[in-house]
């Protein structure tokens, strides 16, 4: 189920409400050294307790900085020593930064000025920017798209997800056929397996083909359906790892 959540004029109230309502909240952007952060319209994604994406909203970057989120949860801001150290390691080859004025240095170090009681999660040894998490739910990310994607992937070990045995199983199938050619079959398939709790989705890649996703609790049933789908749409079974690599290469 998807729904659009519109944030209220009070960003402080909105942050509190979203964290109270949802299990997983993400903000992107607004954490850079300038007055307005990174992108002007960073997204905020919400995940409900069913572990399905239920909505998104957009707010101005200046409204979701560390400062405003610290205010939302009544925390002071403090420079984070380890983040400052990692930042220094990453930029030590930049001789121009050694010539910065005090104001420029303060602006740079603002990127390590976090709410005092936040969790600071480093998801990769070569990325000095951490994911800052508030209330165990609200995760603050940079807005640079490729960096955001990599950090989201790296956050998985830090999420309170159920064990694999309790999660729905997914099988993906890739075909070079256009989505319109496989649509009638997928519509019929979804009607046939709906009562068994199986979800069928299709995700086209422009001028490349289509990924078909089969999701359900019965792994053997999903695997058998995957083989059927591969035959019917002239496709091939794709593992989760293969799908990630293929999509990342686009």
From TrEMBL:
<feature type="domain" description="FAD synthase middle">
    <location>
        <begin position="169"/>
        <end position="239"/>
    </location>
</feature>
<dbReference type="Pfam" id="PF24102">
    <property type="entry name" value="FLAD1_M"/>
</dbReference>
<dbReference type="GO" id="GO:0042726">
    <property type="term" value="P:flavin-containing compound metabolic process"/>
</dbReference>
<dbReference type="InterPro" id="IPR036425">
    <property type="entry name" value="MoaB/Mog-like_dom_sf"/>
</dbReference>
<dbReference type="GO" id="GO:0047884">
    <property type="term" value="F:FAD diphosphatase activity"/>
</dbReference>
<protein>
    <recommendedName>
        <fullName>FAD synthase middle domain-containing protein</fullName>
    </recommendedName>
</protein>
<dbReference type="InterPro" id="IPR056596">
    <property type="entry name" value="FLAD1_M"/>
</dbReference>
């Amino acid at each position: 189920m998807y729904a659009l959540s519109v944030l209220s004029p009070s960003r402080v109230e909105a942050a509190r409400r979203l964290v109270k309502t949802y299990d997983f909240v993400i903000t992107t952007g607004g954490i850079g050294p300038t007055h307005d952060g990174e992108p002007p319209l960073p997204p905020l994604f919400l995940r409900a307790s069913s572990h399905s994406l239920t909505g998104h909203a957009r707010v101005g970057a200046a409204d979701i900085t560390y400062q405003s989120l610290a205010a939302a949860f009544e925390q002071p801001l403090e420079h984070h020593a380890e983040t400052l150290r990692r930042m220094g390691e990453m930029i030590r080859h930049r001789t121009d930064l050694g010539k910065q004025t005090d104001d420029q240095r303060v602006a740079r170090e603002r990127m390590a000025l976090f709410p005092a009681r936040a969790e600071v999660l480093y998801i990769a040894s070569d990325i000095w920017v951490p994911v800052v998490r508030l209330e165990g739910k609200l995760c603050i990310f940079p807005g640079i798209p490729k960096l955001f994607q990599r950090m989201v992937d790296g956050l998985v070990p830090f999420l309170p997800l159920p064990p694999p045995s309790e999660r729905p199983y997914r099988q993906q199938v890739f075909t070079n056929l256009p989505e319109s050619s496989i649509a009638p079959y997928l519509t019929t398939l979804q009607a046939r397996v709906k009562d068994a709790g199986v979800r069928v989705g299709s995700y086209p890649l422009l001028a490349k083909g289509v990924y078909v996703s089969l999701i359900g609790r019965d792994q053997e049933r999903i695997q058998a359906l995957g083989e059927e789908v591969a035959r019917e749409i002239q496709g091939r079974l794709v593992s989760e790892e293969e799908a990630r690599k293929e999509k990342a290469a686009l």
